[in-house]
Amino acid sequence: MNIADQHLIKDNSLEHKQxxxxxxxxxxLIEGDTLSVLGKIDxxxxxxxxxxxxxxxxxxxxxxxxxNVVYDVYKDAVPEPEYQQHQVDVLNEIYRITAPGGSFFYNxxxxxxxxxxxxxxxxxxxxxxxxxQEIIWDRMIAGNIRGWRFWQVEERIYWLYKPIGxxxxxxxxRSCDAKxxxxxxxxxxxxxxxxxxxxxxxxxxxxxxISILDTETQGIVLDPYIGSGTTAVAAKxxxxxxxxxxxxxxxMKMTIDRLANAHSEMxxxxxxxxxxxxxxxxxxxxSKGKNVGKFRDTDNNRQTKLFER
Length: 309
Description:
Layout: H1 3-7, E1 8-10, E2 27-31, H2 34-38, E3 46-51, H3 80-97, E4 98-108, E5 111-113, E6 116-118, H4 121-124, E7 130-138, E8 154-161, H5 175-178, E9 183-185, H6 203-213, E10 220-223, H7 230-237, E11 241-246, H8 249-260, H9 266-275, H10 282-287, E12 295-297, E13 302-304
Parallel strand pairs: 1-2, 2-11, 3-4, 3-10, 7-9, 10-11
Antiparallel strand pairs: 4-8, 5-6, 7-8, 12-13
Helix pairs in contact: 6-7, 6-9
């Protein structure tokens, strides 16, 4: 049985809430409309998710650097109120299928149209999620370099949390993960290496999965707009199951090919894992009476940092 037979499901073959944790195997790719497929996943299945949906850029507001950002079978141009409501509906379905204590990382950007600003928080506040943190992804490259505003090189990643009961904070991150800060710096995937119009760099979903799930227990990772399969590859290489959804048959083929050759990308995962290390945690430093914050050492004029590496 080849990898497509093992992992690929067509939306029209599924019934309501037919996808359960027990039937996932290593993982499943589901070809179909995102909202429709989400409705066929059982409650409380997913442990962590990460995605970047189409941005409703109207397909003409791209800038010459990203002139090829046109999706295979999806037209990224709908009325803005319709787009925002659809995102609310998708996010609420993801909330339903996420286990209490689970997280979802939602990558989007601030957009402008005819002078009006559309901010992701405009619709995130209308969902059932608790917005735990806003992370800035410094992409270090501008998609549109006209001078109406300072060049926009950042996107936002919203850490959305499904509380257990009324405990909105959740458990504390490990020191080796928290030290990576709320600004993530790294360029997007090179379009010459990946034909998808807007792929994640592999380190981004890997960072999410490592920080939330670690590698000690097997979890279930969701990407409802799987595209070229980056999130599924990261999940597989880190020892977790995955659910990936996309309506494009072409993108599903790309994902299947990448999963079949996932070992070739292991060096990128190892590089990210290398960043999640500290020699001494905050608690350990405090118990030994060592510095637990940044300060200026006036004796030798050197700065001591919160975590030693």
